[in-house]
Structure formats: C-alpha cells, structure tokens
Amino acid sequence: MSRHLSPTPRAGRPSPGLLAAASLALAATASVATASVTVLQVEADGSTATTGIQYAPVEFAGSTTVTSGGVTYYALSAVAPDSTYSGHAATVRDRLLAADGAANPVTDIYCLYASDLLDDYVKTAAESTVAARPALLGNGIKVVNNSWVGSYGTFALDQDAQRRMDYMIAREDLVWVSGAVTDDSYGSPLVWTARNGIAVRGTQAFDPANATYEQVGKRHADLWGPKAASGLDEAASYETPGVAGYAAGLVETATTTAGLGNAQKHQVVKSLLLTGADKTATTSNGFLSWSRETVNNLDVQDGAGRADYQKSLAVLTAGEKAEADVSAGAVVAPAATLDTQGWVWGNLLANGKQAVVVEVAGATLSNLTATLTWDVTQQEKPGNKLDTTDAGVIFANLDLELLPVSFDGSAYTLGDSFGIAGLMSKATDDNVEHLYYNTGTLAAGYYAFVFSNSSGFAQDYGFSYSFDLAAIPEPGVLALLALGGALLLRRRRR
To answer: 309-317 and 236-256 are packed helices; what angle lies between their axes, rounded to 10 degrees?
Structure first.
C-alpha cells in the first residue's frame, strides 16, 4: 500500500485516501461516428477490507473484463468476488461519456486503483530505492483523468512523482487531465502539478502559494471545467471529466479527419484547449473573474479560463498551418495565411526561431488568443533507470510573441516588438506560453507568431491561435457616412 493516502481525516469526512482519486472516461466529438478513444479511469479505494476494492465505475465481481452499455471495462488492479462498484467513479464516468452532449465514441475503459498507479506504473521513489523508469500504461490508452491523488507528505517524494508523470506523458503521448486542488483537509493533492498535464479547477480551495507541498512543478491551474458555463459550481472531480471528454473529442476528430492527424499530439490538444478557453466568468462562487497574473498571461487560479469545446474544435478544424524558419529577422517562406484560426505541430531547433505569418486584409485584428506548449521530461539512465534529480531535468526555454511584419513582395521581415504584455509571453519557469489581447485592435497588414528556443537542444511543440476580424468600410462608404453626418448636422442647425 502506498504511503501517499495516509493523511489524518477530519471528523465526518471520508479519509483523503478514500477521496484521493482519479476518474476517467471520455466523450466524443460531433463530427465523427466510427472512431474510438481508449481511456484510463483511476479511482481511490472506496471500500472496506471485507468488501474488496471499489475503484471502478462497474462491478467486476471477480472477473477482469465487463461489458456494459456498449463499453468494455478492463480491471488493471485486483478485483474481489464480492467487490462492488464505486459510486464516485460511476458518476465521473457518466459525466465523461456525456461531455458536450455528443455521441459517445468510447468502447474501452481501463480501470486502475490510485495507489497502484503510483506503485506499479509511476514507480515513485517512495516505493523503491531503485530509480526504475515508469512502466508503460500501454493498451492503446490515450487520455488519462485524475481528479486528484494525495501527497506523499514531503517535497522530495512529491517532486519525484511529478517528474515521473511528466516523463510518462512525454514518452507515451498521453493527454493527462487532473483536478487542481490545494485544500490540505483533503490531503495535499499531487497529480495536478505535472507540467505536461492539464490541471482543471473545481470549487475546492486552490491557492498554490499556500499549499504545503505543491511547489514541485506547475504553479497554476490551466482551465476551469465546462460546468461553469451554466453558472454551476462543481467540485474538481466533476469539472475534470468534462475537460477529459473534450480532449477525447479533439483526439477523435484529429484521428478521423484527413489532414488533422498531427493534432492527436498531446501538446497540440493542450494548446487547443487553452486557446479555445472562455475568459468570461459565469459562476456564483467558483469562476468569479479572470485576470492577467503571470508573465505568460494566465490567471494563477483560473488558468486560461473555462474550457469551451466548440471554440477549441473550430481552431482544430481550421487546419494545420505552415511554420517557417526565421533567419536574421527574415521569415524564410512559406506564404502568409489568411486564416483567423489554426494550429501547428512543429520542432524548434536548438537556439532557433520559427514563425507562422498571418495576413489581415481589409480589416482590423482583435480578440487574439494563442498558446504554445511543449514537454518537460527527465534523462534516461542505463539499466532502465530514470534521473529525477534537478540535473536530470530536460526543460527547453521557449518564448512566444506576435510581431509586425513588412512584406516587399518577395520577403517577410520581422518588425519591432509592440511592447504590449498580452502580445508577448516569455515565462522562464513554465512550459506554456499564452497570448491574450482584447484591449484594442491591430491595423490591416502582416503579423507573425514567433516561436523562439533559447536552449541548446531541439524541442517539439504544439501551437494554436485564434483572432477576430472587423471589416474596414470602403472609402466610398466612409465618404457617404461623412456626408450623411454633415447633412444631419446642417438640418439640426436650422
């Protein structure tokens, strides 16, 4: 049994070990009907010693495979002949399968007990003095959802676990969604701190600065879940599955739509979700307001805002755009795109720069959002070992900025920085760069989303963007408007 589920419970409340959890399943997208995304649902033990482990949304009753409602469930942890299902897991599963009201494409859900996740797969240092690499989840699993898993109780052990999970995400190309909670009465939660994952807010307390052990990786939430849209206030356990369902829908669309295959990458999925987020607060005591609090234009508690599936889907289906290398301030082909939305799966060379050039023709640009994401991982060592020390961290420093571009008919040349916070993102301790500009407009012309890598090694990344256009009236229309105003003024003077 892992020691991460051992904080002392408060009276009248289940112990953190019973609450500490993860929950997963998925939901679908509207545009495809035949694809399936395989998911992992992780839950804590909700039983007593006499009734067996209850970590799944279905009753296994001694079997390791159960089919129910068109979905096949596989037990990755032990089952008992008299085991019953977990009510928490069943509720989370229902929310995931119903996310966005779309048809459910899920046919396979693997179920895992939270302690076994850390013991048998993450292989944290708390379980062994041998720093073995994490085990493969395998089984075609693409999306993982954890509402949360309790802390080991020390910074060193939590950091080791967090870095191992980041390694797993990068190695297996996983979309790992976790509830972001820092309420110590639940046992200081762990999984949301994984930098490569997606941390989802709920109504439980969340303040990384006050958390006991959370300063091990990520320092902010990424998103609020979809329930906030209707003014509802939901716990992280039930906001998280909505985002996991959205992620599954994006993966499904990317899998089944020609030309969108690269959007299956977990970095792109995360970027799409953050770019599509709605920053308009809607709840009564949850998502109250959004403000720019970090150098990468995120709110510490609310991240990029509330997850919005339709907006993220629109960015995805706008298609992959061509990135170009930047050399000596010049963009080396290809031509600019007129599309107001899109995404990129790319690779930045060591100390390199790339750009996506957009043309704003006959209009002004406003309400711009863009997100660049990439992985932090750890060095592998001989003998199937993993170096989870500071020396083993592989963390590229990427920046994102929107710059003006001049075009002479044959070459694009980058201009000077606008010097506007929302149009530049240069965090040094995060693997997300986020732009958000809603306080004005930019004139018609050419602009470049510029990605910079100041590290001595190449780095894969996911990028997405979206902005609005407002048409500029033709000169003749302006003249008529001016004439009409003059006649009106003359009539009033009479």
So the answer is: 20
- CATH number among 3.40.50.11270, 3.30.379.10, 3.40.50.200, 3.40.50.1370, domain 3-316: 3.40.50.200
Whole-angstrom distance, CA of residue 147 vs CA of residue 164: 18
Six-digit token string for 114: 């939270």
Confirm if 144 and 42 have CB atoms less than 8 A apart. Answer: yes
| One-letter amino acid for residue 64 of the chain | T
What value, to the nearest 5°, has the Cα angle with vertex 41 and ends 118 and 143?
95
- pTM for the model stands at 0.88
Is 320-472 CATH 2.60.120.380?
yes
Please report which confidence band the pLDDT of residue 192 belongs to, taking 50, 70 and 90 as the band edges: confident
Please work out, in degrees rounded to the nearest 5, the angle formed at the alpha carbon of residue 271 by the alpha carbons of 267 and 277: 150
229 pLDDT band, cuts 50/70/90, is low
Query: Which residue type is seen at 202?
Result: G
Task: Measure CA of the first residue to CA of the last residue in the chain; give whole Å.
Answer: 90
pLDDT digits 0-9 by tens, 3-23: 222 222 222 222 223 223 332
Q: Quote the CA–CA distance of 119 and 343 in Å, as a whole number.
A: 37
